[in-house]
From TrEMBL:
InterPro entries: CysQ/Inositol_MonoPase (IPR050725), Inositol_monophosphatase-like (IPR000760). Its cofactor is Mg(2+). This is 3'(2'),5'-bisphosphate nucleotidase. Belongs to the inositol monophosphatase superfamily. GO terms for molecular function: 3'(2'),5'-bisphosphate nucleotidase activity; metal ion binding. It is an enzyme of class 3 (hydrolase). It comes from Paramoeba aestuarina. Keywords: Magnesium, Metal-binding. Its EC number is 3.1.3.7. Signal peptide: none annotated.
Length: 291
């Protein structure tokens, strides 16, 4: 924990509270800032032109909850690896991710500007070039063969659970399930991994149980759902988001994220779970929040 984490949460939660005083908020640093009076900050709000999803009609503020990771990648921040640092803001609707924002403040964009925002809304009607699905696949598939996995894992040595999963996936490929080998890339910080999938630099993210929390994945999960992807635990089950700040927010089942679940979900769960048919899996989101 650094002063940067605390100050970032003060600014973000202070701004959200000023703009939306009735919006429940859960932040990573709530415990450290307990009892502190938040600053009144007038955020620079910009109206986004999109049609409100049908599920939001007649909603009340208590149906929503903002889930904030004010500085994802604290270790990378301390090591001056700023490219891996991001701000993650998700909004849940009735306990499930519905709006997601990943902001990478140090990323240099194609036009030379600094700071990249990736966002999406589950159920949003898509308009214009900014409202896209996943980037086009870079590899041309052989007919009948699924796209090879590019698996993003942490930059630390993998623990037993995750190491076994990755090794088994490699073994399945070596046994003849396709011609391309699975590729593993080591990436620091959860938000950075999820952003890489959004940019098409990976298509799978695996994380050990209890290695991250809901505020690490909420924004990414909303973006994934909006674009037809999947994010849940290593058993293929989706997480429930509790608006109570004192609740247990750890991802005790680990994390499995896929941009193309129709191609990869059954294959990966064949390794991570024995019985695929019993999984509480989102096979077809149809752009609507799960309630």
């Amino acid at each position: 924990l650094t002063e940067a984490d605390l100050e970032a949460q003060r600014l973000i939660v202070g701004g959200l509270t000023t703009a939306f005083p009735d919006l429940p908020i859960v932040g990573e640093e709530d415990e450290s800032l307990a009892g502190e009076t938040l600053p009144e900050i007038q955020p620079d709000l910009k109206k986004v032109d999109f049609k409100t999803p049908p599920s939001f009609e007649n909603a009340v503020w208590s149906d929503f909850c903002a889930v904030v990771d004010p500085l994802d990648g604290t270790k990378q921040f301390c090591l001056s690896k700023f490219f891996a640092v991001s701000v993650l803001i998700g909004v849940t609707f009735k306990g499930q991710p519905a709006i997601g924002v990943i902001y990478e403040p140090w990323r240099v964009c194609d036009d030379g500007s600094q700071g990249l925002t990736t966002w999406d809304v589950v159920g949003m009607e898509r308009k214009g070039p900014d409202h896209v699905w996943w980037p086009e696949k870079k590899q041309k598939k052989i007919e009948g063969e699924r796209e090879s996995l590019v698996i993003a894992v942490g930059d630390k040595p993998m623990k037993a659970v995750l190491g076994n999963i990755v090794n088994l996936l490699k073994e399945k490929r070596e046994e003849g399930e396709g011609e391309r080998g699975e590729k593993v890339i080591h990436v620091g910080a959860t938000g950075h991994k999820l952003a890489k999938i959004c940019r098409g630099e990976a298509n799978c993210y695996l994380q050990d149980p209890n290695a991250c929390c809901r505020w690490d994945i909420c924004a990414g999960e909303a973006i994934f759902r909006a674009r037809g992807g999947f994010l849940g635990d290593l058993n293929g089950k989706i997480y429930k988001y509790d608006p109570n700040p004192s609740a247990n927010h750890e991802n005790d089942g680990g994390v499995l994220a896929l941009s193309y679940p129709s191609e990869h979900l059954e294959h990966v769960l064949g390794v991570t779970k024995n019985n695929f048919d019993e999984c509480d899996v989102i096979k077809h989101t149809n752009g609507e929040p799960i309630t």
